[in-house]
Amino acid sequence: MEITLTLNGEETTFAGIGSESLLDILRRSGYTGTKRGCNTGDCGFCTVIVDGQPIKSCLEPAIRSDGVDVETIEGLGTQDELHPIQAAFVDNAALQCGFCIPGMIMRTKALLESNPDPTAAEIRAGLSGNLCRCTGYEKILVAVDDAASRMADETGLAADGGRLGGSQSCSSCDCDFGGGPE
Ligand code: FES
Ligand code: FES
Predict the structure, then answer these.
(1) pTM of this structure
(2) Handedness of CA 69, 24, 77, 144 (dihedral sign)
(3) Mean predicted lDDT score pLDDT of the chain
């Protein structure tokens, strides 16, 4: 069985599809930036974006992915030119072993594309399906908030929601990021 999907903007065909998951076919085709943790839908390490929605690719039958649009971490920035989300994670030291980070970043991308200026609570809720065994989450939550500001700067959107003449509060302070995602 063969499926064709759009992978990071390129039409890509995968052959020999059996009972594999989307994660299986990505990794066996060299897209190893998408990580396998639990393989049971619990950790979120395998998160990719399918048709604009973050999904856990270990749970997604590959056969159901024919014709969809898939984004993986390989489609974001490069070593020389990081995506703003990647840069925010690096600059805020929001990683230790890094194993959860591709999934965190893809989850963050989907969150910020649907909600460019999330509150602290919305960031927590948005990342609640992704676990990290190292960081304690604090720096990840700060990095997502920072990434929202960087992406707003790139798009020209006002990070304060567009209140003309209002006070321009810094989104990296006065936050409430204690503890981990719920
Ligand atoms: S590997 Fe998919 S959720 Fe853990
Ligand atoms: S940085 Fe190690 S699992 Fe998150």
Answers:
(1) 0.86
(2) positive
(3) 89
